[in-house]
Amino acid sequence: MANNSDDVASVPPTFSLNVTLPRNTVQIFAELYASGNGDEEFWYFNTADEYLGDLPAGTTYGGGPFREVRMLVDGQVAGVAFPYAVIFTGGINPACWQPITSYGALDLPTYFIDLTPFVPVFADGLPHNISLDVASAEANHTLNENWYVTGLLQVITDSSSEPTTGNITSYTAQPYAVTETTGSVGGGDVNVTVKATRQLKIEATIVSGSGQENQVVWEQNLEYSNTQYYLDNTYTQNVVQTATGTILSTHNGVTTVSDQFEYPLNINISYLNTNGTLFYSSFDHSYNRDVLPAPFILGSTITERQLASGYFGETASGNYGNGTSNNTFVYADTQDNTFTWNVDAAYDVITLNQQSGSLATNALPEFPQATKAMSLPAARLPGGKTVGVTLS
């Protein structure tokens, strides 16, 4: 589903598609993909428009740091996602992501919405509009270019060919999240905090052609906070962000979709010279999620934390730097599979690799640390800045 290709859509603008489903549809489950790119790659570093003019030109982009991915049916919000902040390879400090990338950089998380309350809408057999967009906390909810979004629908039909009936009995959802922006400016420091909350609850009664009744309750309760500290005339830049949520859908009182998540993110960038060609950075990045995507998809619990730090420098002869990374990953699923992985790296080599659990493989041996700085590609930084020589 796309507005410019066969696979993904670039937003803004809103992506929109008319969809016709079988009249005997009884359940609909959606899976969403969303990735910030271009001027939105470091969306969590974008500052609120209200305070952008208090920062030196080129420090970062505007549009604020809050992002909400929305799915709408015929213009009504059907479900949302507060996205996980993915740091791609080369993002901020390439030395921190060799040889271990940031979690999610090569396999972005997806998000799950129960569209079953809208079955009575689709059951008329006519086209209905499904749209995807990404909204900010700014007054006009606009953002920069661009996000790539896509999704899929998994549709369950009844054994009977008779049309499904029913209706949405309760709908509680605001068009956009409730947001608040505060800040302070003075003494060479600019501090900005953006907070957001989202509550959504939709209830429906669905009666299949074979006569089975389904009472559906779909609910999302999400919270978000981001504080940016631009200190010492932006020589020090810190972001402290967290997104949390509880998502639950029940069909006749039985859990059908559930998602509890917490995505803490702490980043420091400290410039060590006046022209910005030498800097230190550190990352404390976690992905904690207990999710049941649909009744026919394996549920899983993942607890992941990555601590990475390093320096990056540019000279006339090329880029250099060193980085370290400490990673803990714990996995369990509803089929009793388990996997724990502790893996560390320093100076571009693996220094620790410990695995356990039913899915574990033979651990790799420990490797000695390298003794010289790495050759690195240029670093991509917030605000469209690039530090370093581009490798050919």
TrEMBL record:
Domain Peptide N-acetyl-beta-D-glucosaminyl asparaginase amidase A N-terminal: 3-173
One Pfam family recorded for the sequence: PNGase_A_C
Classification via InterPro entries: PNGase_A (IPR021102), PNGaseA_N (IPR056948)
Family matches, as PANTHER family: PEPTIDE-N4-(N-ACETYL-BETA-GLUCOSAMINYL)ASPARAGINE AMIDASE A PROTEIN (PTHR31104)
Protein name according to UniProt: Peptide N-acetyl-beta-D-glucosaminyl asparaginase amidase A N-terminal domain-containing protein
